[in-house]
Description:
By secondary structure, the chain is α/β, with parallel strands linked by helices. Helices cover 37% and strands 16% of the residues. It has ten helices and seven strands. It has helices at residues 7-17, 28-44, 58-70, 73-80, 150-154, 171-179, 200-203, 207-216, 220-223, 234-242; strands at 89-98, 114-116, 119-128, 134-141, 161-163, 183-185, 224-225. The chain is globular, with a radius of gyration of 19 Å. The model has no long low-confidence stretch (mean pLDDT 89).
Amino acid sequence: xxxxxxxxxxxxxxxxxxxxSGIHTRNKEExxxxxxxxxxxxxxxxxxxxxxxxxxxxxSIYQRFLRWKKKDIWRKMFQEFQDIDDEWxxxxxxxxxxxxxxxGYKTGFKENLGRNRGGFSTKxxxxxxxLGNPVKFILSPGNDHDITHAEELVKDLRNTKIQADxxxxxxxxxxxxxxxxxxALIPSRSNSKKKRVFDKHIFRERHLIENLFSKIKHFRRIxxxxxxxxxxxxxxxxxxxxxx
Length: 244
């Protein structure tokens, strides 16, 4: 079988999974086949029933993926491999278009679907470190404004610098950062009466978080939403980015 996940990357993930209680990890080859299947779904964005037979029963694989999601394994995996450069942090949001088949779920907006000028969409908010590596993800309906989830993104950060664009220019948010000992590297909007002073040399590195969104959208199941539920494979993709 051709592998989408390298041997070294799989070995690190498998070592981590061995520390998780409540899942079966004795059969190493079975675990690898399952992870390869999840990676294939994430990369191609194909429907679960279109998963190649070499990976096994497609519905059993997806049910296992959901069980791991309920156990919070994917998020723990994402956090396990982080090696954060905390010199400063960056936040931003990006819209992903939702296919028409994603609509119609009973819980509606609880599944992070919203309507804006481009139609149904979901928005990904990301917190990255100084090198543009992913630290945290949040999903919301696509019609939410960026500032809506800003405090939730950075609530655990203390005594550091937070870099963001003009969409986050809010006195309330800046006061929240100051309360936590953080310095806001956020340019003021053109109509602001009092211009905020910030380090423009650090702000030049802002392209790194844009690059992060570009990398994460190489996973087609993330760049285009086809699922009715918002289990978007983000944490698994983020873990793979850290392990590259």
